[in-house]
Amino acid sequence: MSANQEAQSDELLALASIYDEEEFCKTESVQKGEIRLCLELPPNFRLLVKGQVCIECGISFLPPLVLSFELPTDYPSSSAPMTALCKRLDELWEENRGNVVLFIWIQFLKEETLKFLNIKSSLKIQNISGQPQCKSGQNQAVDTAVEKSKVQELDKRAVQEVDPHTDILTQLLDFNEIQKQKVFDGKVFSCGICFSENLGSKSLLFKECQHVYCKTCMKEYFQFQIRDGKVQCLTCPKPECMSMATPTQVKLLVSQDEFARYDHLLLQWSLNLMADVVYCPRISCCMAVMIEPDTTIGICPSCQFVFCTLCKRTYHGLSLCKERKIILMCPFIHTSTVKSI
């Protein structure tokens, strides 16, 4: 084995021991591979989308930089790895010519990319001709027409692996949520109920308040509330905290039958809060019925029963409900009784 081959093997072996399979992938047949680097943004980093409607949201991660490489036979003695990143990586190779350089490149990409590319909060995405375009730092103030006239030739080794018809904002937000969950799963948290130490993958996070509990405690808590029909009470167990568990979180912890009951009761509870919704009075139906404002007629879309929304009996037109007639007649009946005495 030549000195170059030995250096290449040692470098790839070292990288495989440092990074997991999602970050570092090497082909078995030839000396090439791929390194995926996820950049963690500074705290309180904001993303601003400017278009017909301005949208601002916080993100913690950007999609990964992908460093694809192939090691020439004369690397590292003479040639640099062939890569899809550009000028600065070339400069780092020149500074370290004759030595293995992949780890130096990776560290640069992970630690200095944001500063090198001048990516700062708020990162603006401007909709141009229906497609989102990213701007950052000084470029954010450049007018679109001027910017088009100053487009520089891009390094052909740099490839943007994004479909031009893709909604970039959706991609950024989706990836941010996935990466945040991945980071959460790998950390250790103390359950706020039983105080046991658990990985995030075995814990549940209430997103609004950021309180964390183990899944065992939350499963019992959810099951108890669902059995009692208190689906509106699936809030954070901490006193006075009103952060609600999401249906997705509930579904992951309870059985299929329990979730079906929860889903039904939650829908019923939500409908009860709506002033224009009543239920079909037929016991065999009980379908939710939308009613028009200032009317007392309800028509069930399921069984077609037409009923009065006040007395829940068959609709009786403009005549008074039976119960209301009795109430109105009560003073008269009472007066007549007194006079007869």
TrEMBL record:
Keywords tagged on the record: Metal-binding, Repeat, Transferase, Ubl conjugation pathway, Zinc, Zinc-finger
Catalytic function, reaction form: [E2 ubiquitin-conjugating enzyme]-S-ubiquitinyl-L-cysteine + [acceptor protein]-L-lysine = [E2 ubiquitin-conjugating enzyme]-L-cysteine + [acceptor protein]-N(6)-ubiquitinyl-L-lysine
RING-type domain ranges (all copies): 187-341, 191-236
Domain of life: Eukaryota
EC main group: transferase
CDD domains the UniProt entry points to: BRcat_RBR_RNF14 (cd20341), RING-HC_RBR_RNF14 (cd16628), RWD_RNF14 (cd23820)
Domain RWD: 10-116
SMART domains according to UniProt: IBR, RING, RWD
A Pfam short name: zf-C3HC4
Keyword Glycoprotein appears in the UniProt entry: no
EC number per UniProt: 2.3.2.31
Keyword match rRNA processing: no
Protein name: RBR-type E3 ubiquitin transferase
